[in-house]
Amino acid sequence: MSADxxxxxxxxxxxxxxxxxxxxxxKGRDVAVVVNRAPLDMRTQDRIPSVQTFDTYVNNNPQDPAxxxxxxxxxxxxxxxxxGVLLTRFADSDKGAVISMWLPALRKIRRINEPSHEDxxxxxxxxxxxxxxxxxxxxxxxxxxxxxIEGCLGAMALKRWEKNRYTLRLPxxxxxxxxxxxxxxxxxxxxxxxxYDYHISEIDKRTFALYRTVYYKNGGKIxxxxxxxxxxxxxxxxxxxxxxIYAVTHADGKDSMVYVPRSTISLNADLGDDFxxxxxxxxxxx
Amino acid sequence: MGQDTRDYAEGYARFMLRHRRAVIFLLFASTLLALxxxxxxxxxxxxxxxxxxxxxxxxxxxxxxxxxGMGNLMVWGMKVKQGDIHQPWFIRMMDEFYRDxxxxxxxxxxxxxxxxxxxxxxxxxxxxGSLDFRRLLPAGxxxxxxxxxxxxxxxxxxxxxxxxxxxxxLVYYQDRQGNKCEMVGxxxxxxxxxxxxxxxxxTAKGTFIIGDFSNELKDHHLEWIxxxxxxxxxxxxxxxxxxxxxxxxxxxFLASMVEELWDKAWLxxxxxxxxxxxxxxEFRHWSCAVLPLLGVxxxxxxxxxxxxxxxxxxxxxxxxTPMLLLAIGIGHSMQITRRFTQELHHTGDPxxxxxxxxxxxxxxxxxxxxxxxxxFFAISFIDISFYKAYAYFGIFGMSTLILTTTTLIPLLMxxxxxxxxxxxxxxxxxxxxxxxxxxILTGPAKWLPVLAVIAIxxxxxxxxxxxxxxxxxxxxxxGRTDPEVARIQDEFDIMPGVxxxxxxxxxxxxxxxxxxxxxxxxxxxxxxxxxDALSSMMPGVITxxxxxxxxxxxxxxCGMDAWNEKGERLLGADRCFDELADPPQGxxxxxxxxxxxxxxxxxxxxxxxxxxxxxxxxFVKTLNMMLNAPAGEPPTRHMNxxxxxxxxxxxxxxxxxxxxDSGGQLPDPDRIVQLYSGMLDAGxxxxxxxxxxxxxxxxxxxxxxxxxxxxxxxxxxTVIDIQDYLRSHAGDPxxxxxxxxxxxxxxxxIPTKDRQGSRTLVTDDAxxxxxxxxGFLGITxxxxxxxxxxxxxxxxxxxxxxxxxxxxxxxxxxxxxxLISLCFITLMTxxxxxxxxxxxxxxxxxxxxxxxxxLSIAMGLGVDYGVYMVFRLREEMSVCGGEWRxxxxxxxxxxGSAIIIAMVVLLGSFIPLMNTELxxxxxxxxxxxxxxxxxxxxxxxxxxLMVYWLRPxxxxxxxxxxxxxxxxxxxx
Lengths: 286, 972
Description:
The complex is a heterodimer. By secondary structure, chain A is mainly β. Chain A is built from three helices and 15 strands. Chain B is an alpha+beta fold. Among the domains of chain B are: about 190 residues, Multidrug efflux transporter AcrB transmembrane fold, CATH 1.20.1640.10; about 190 residues, no CATH class; about 220 residues, Multidrug efflux transporter AcrB transmembrane domain (Multidrug efflux transporter AcrB transmembrane fold), CATH 1.20.1640.10; about 35 residues, no CATH class.
């Protein structure tokens, strides 16, 4: 396979293009969670990592041909509890995405235009570009070769004083991928003056799951992102889910982790397109 | 006792001579060892570490720096010469410049603000009515496509003009006459009308980048400033024909001071040359000129080596220490060299000459150095780091002079004896001086010097407004209705004409300097010129940090023990805080508090000396406007919503807040601001909000004000006004839940340099009821406080030690009283000098705290002259059989002329200090020089009259046999 083909496959697999819809919803005590930890310099005993729980609903196959995907997230804890975000991406790539946001304290929907690629996602050290916006065409890809996964995938290692009931069950480093055959792909950004020059990714040859991505700037490592892709036991092995995403910034040590328990996930739920609507956001907010 | 002293002196001289090779070797070896430590001198020039950390202003500033950063702010200003800033080449240049300065070492790039900053977001709507929050300048810079570039520039311009938080900080508007256009209206507030006026009538001519750097920079001053200047020089070379560049900021200021000191080190050579020539002129032999310099040079190296070894934090002011050691050491060197040549002339044997000269000189030299040390000794007790540095290293250096000059020079002269000259005694000018002065002091003209001194004293007192000070003190409680009278009473400011506050930049740098003009420039000091230019363009160039904390405090976060395995809570909401389950805590989650802080900020912005403020409150207000403006309408059309959504505000603007599905009810204010804090926290990059608020507790934050003046009187008034506002609004809803600044008696933990440990400091409570303000305004006020504490205390402490020392030395109350009285005359003239400088607004030389060190040092040095004169008068009175006129003439021809030469040497050695760009060295040199000139005038022309009129027994007791010790002292 060529480098561009690999990049295209990775994009399809990572953005859920192989399922009609996917839902992650709290089940009992299991809930998807984002954990953010401050840079090393700012870590003190009174600063435990911040935690945000959320439910997500992704529709990859809307009826309206003008709409490419509909993604909805509901924040279920903290000061923003009840806030709902509906992201509508259009088939026309020149048309920017639209975000509708339900603000429970104001009981209002506000529409916000598409965030920029470099904007941070939920206070993490991941950007909207990495998670949502960046497409294969935004980079130049070069296949460096093939190999096998070496070492475990990193995870957030919390000190005892940093833990609470929400972070107690965060997964540790994932070692089951060691030895899996991978492509090594170098992707150089086409954007000028960008926050990285290129990244090198290790991609599962069978599932196109992106396990490890290391970003470089001026020849030095700046960030590493680990994704623990796990099978959803579907006929197509490319249908996987990110059990956790762990990103660490090397300059200051800030790290973030998104953890999605398997029990919260369901695929191809019986939901109509009208579910992905501002009405649903309002209903959740109430 | 005299016999004992003589024996000790002789024993010392013989011992030294017997072991002279070992002594010489040990002194040279010590000097070489010290030399190896000289390059470790810790010259860091950090004003906020000079002052006592227990001071609440300093503690507040330190706490703010440690908690929120922004302690080392830099400003770069760029002003286009033609057109406005919205030109593609200029924006590209800005973008590149921003990246380059963000990449400078020690940069906290997350805290940088400028047009290309990620913080510069649009506050508008898209064509379809969605809120538009994109970066004003794309992260990748302007497009190469002309059409796209045009639309990007339009977007930037429009976005800037709608940016309520940062436009007034980052964009400089100028009208057609070249005057600055103010964004704030006459009411002190930013409104649609005030902004529209600026956009309609003025042109955006300049913009700024504000950068924050870490404290580590202070350990690498010189490398950092070289790179910072390199960036500026590069852009100046490429764009200097189209753009005016300005640079300022505390790190730059402090680093450039250190650099200036090293750059002008060659002036030290000029000083040495002056002294060499004076010594050669005096002795007409090179060994007599070189060896004294060698001895003093060793003392300087030993002292610098000790500075390096101890790693004491020093400032550029410490350049004065080597100069003082040079000047004072040369005086002692001259005495011993002169004595050696006299003895050599008598005996012809260098060893005998060395023995006699050491024996006869060691005691008076020790006494003289003892009086010199008074000034340093007194200031060693003051809790200001550079005062202590002066004291410790001054005492050490001067003490070594006994070895390096009085002992070493004769020992070396045994090996390198000078060629004898026929005429060893006084020169013609010395006799002429003595005859002339004697005629004046014994004739009818003797009143002239007395009248001159009285006139000078009265002029000084008049300038210092001594009368106003005393009148205010005498006005008692009845007079306290006048705030100025109350202030004078509270601060015991008996000389209100003397400004003791500090204008830090001008205290550091002159605005012009002579050497610059002589070397072919225009004499302008660029650092100050840039600062003045930026001051005229920016809302303010020094910060005033208001640290806001709650009275109540918050609960600690819940740990793992707060819940059991079943998910049941074990520690209640009264014991620990669960951010996901419990109601948000912290005063910054309460609308009432934010509303009170918003009102406080509005008041601050309306203050004439505060050009701009920023805080977390501004983010909340902006978000509130964006989210509540009617859908599809530009938020900035609803500037009335740029506010904290308190109940009152929402009632007044119900159209924007009424809940559609709740019968027109208004939402809960606290829930709104809590939602905003959650959104802002989630939307910010790492550390994005941490410059303004403690995101751990949401219970403390900071308001950063930019003060548009550095005038010491106006900065003090600004502090008073802020404190008055806080006092009068302390009971307001919201304000009653918070405290501003660090409190008295509070314990603060300061992390150590390696951040592994910490130390605790306890603040004093010297200003109860007053809010402590941080930032450079706070440092300025703290400096003023310290100056007010010491401007009388330090000289009085010095005068007391001088009095006691002279009393012991002369065993005469009257002599001690005469000498100390004369010292007070000199002191008054120094206050007068400070008053004059204050009256003309020369803030490089008013009586700020760093200048006050000169008062004590000058007193210690100045009393020497009186001591010499009294001893000599006593001896000559005995020799001349009580004939006053002859005794006076002989005294003036010997000791008098030596005093003048010593003064010339001292003034000559100060020339380098006075000709750098640095104002601190100039001002201290100026005060010491003025005092020395006055001291010499008094010692030669007033002291003899006082002695003659008051007839102290020490001088006039005829028939008393003068001890050999006293005779020796007098001869020297």
